[in-house]
Design goal:
Blueprint: E1 3-6, E2 11-14, E3 16-19, H1 32-44, E4 49-51, H2 61-68, E5 78-83, H3 91-104, E6 110-118, H4 120-129, H5 131-140, E7 144-151, H6 155-163, E8 169-173, H7 184-193, E9 197-201, H8 215-222, H9 230-239, E10 246-249, H10 254-264, H11 274-289, H12 310-323, H13 326-337, H14 356-360, H15 367-378, H16 383-394
Parallel strand pairs: 3-4, 3-10, 4-5, 5-6, 6-7, 7-8, 8-9, 9-10
Antiparallel strand pairs: 1-2
Helix pairs in contact: 6-7, 8-11, 12-13, 12-15, 13-16
The structure holds iron/sulfur cluster (2 copies).
Length: about 400
Amino acid sequence: MLTRRMSSTGDDLSILGFGCMRLPGRNPKIDEPRATAMIRGAIDRGLNYIDTAVPYHAGQSEPFVGRVLQDGYRERVKLATKLPPWKVKTREDMDRILGEQLEKLQTDHIDYYLVHSLNAKSWETMRGLGVTDFLDAALADGRIANAGFSFHGKLRGFQTIVDGYDWKFCQIQYNILDTHRQAGTEGLMYAADKGLGIIVMEPLRGGSLTKSVPPSVQTIWDSGATKRTPAEWALRWVWNHPQVNLILSGMSTEEQVDENIRIAGEATAESLTPEELDILDRATAAYQALERVPCTACGYCMPCPAGVDIPGCFDVLNDLGRFGDRRHSRLMYSFRVGGVTSPKPAYASLCTNCGKCVTACPQEINVPVELLEVRRELEWFLTKPIAWMIKRRFGSS
Ligand code: SF4
Ligand code: SF4
């Protein structure tokens, strides 16, 4: 297993971290004997970063990780978990939640403690509630060793958060399709320039890059002189960036653990050849050709007076075009625009056809017309019940 030093913390971290959100079993139930063998086996092979969070497996992941790390395994890893902003109403809640996490994880400190899934708005709220004071206090008394944040939002918000506290690291969604979305490449470089360690999540876009690979993309993967699975191509692309310290992978099977550990033993930074990078560029372009709307998520059309998350709606519609998985896209639509991580729902069907966004869009997208397509493809009678259920799972309702 290769390691890279995170200069902000001085830790030599394995370039593969174990994300404990898709463990084997019938979610939310965890197949504990199997998951224990997978995680301990990975640690025995050099993996030294374990990531969990309150909502994973409906609250069962943290106590499970606490049990897995008994028998001497806790001392062999850096342990990461997260403060869930949607459960925080007061400054006192932060101390209470961290105390509960230490208990569930059977440890006296968290090595890498993140404020979970921040965006510009939730950061503002958490700052107002005193999160920086909380982090300072938890660092000072040793309950946490390093403070960071995970992010799902737009680039500008990301930069604001990076500059808003003395973070040691951040965790961003980054993969061959998200170079211009969320923090993107610009955000990655921005944070790295400021000295933050970089942890990458969703390197396979929630598994989409390995499931139902379009024929046009598979042909390109198959054209390489070295035969690789789509997962290997995608992981090697992320690890090729020297700014990236580690990739988190939510591994569900022994085969995934074996494959990822094998690749993590070889994938040094800047090791891809020009021919390999060309294959990756062509595969990315083939995915882009399947997109339904040429939205770049620039955000110039926002805010919509009716509350529609225009780039969010188009992103899910484009995922449907790329991967053709309607069930998954409808689920993601409920999650992204159903008011789960935002104060209010932001469905396409809220559009009142005022036309404000049309003049603002540099891509000349006829937004209201394309939103009708989003409604037709993604909104169905279970859209709102699914959003309600996800909110309950996240504990925000
Ligand atoms: S046309 Fe629809 S989506 Fe565009 S700004 Fe008006 S209400 Fe919002
Ligand atoms: S202005 Fe156009 S390209 Fe930019 S986010 Fe809005 S719809 Fe997408």
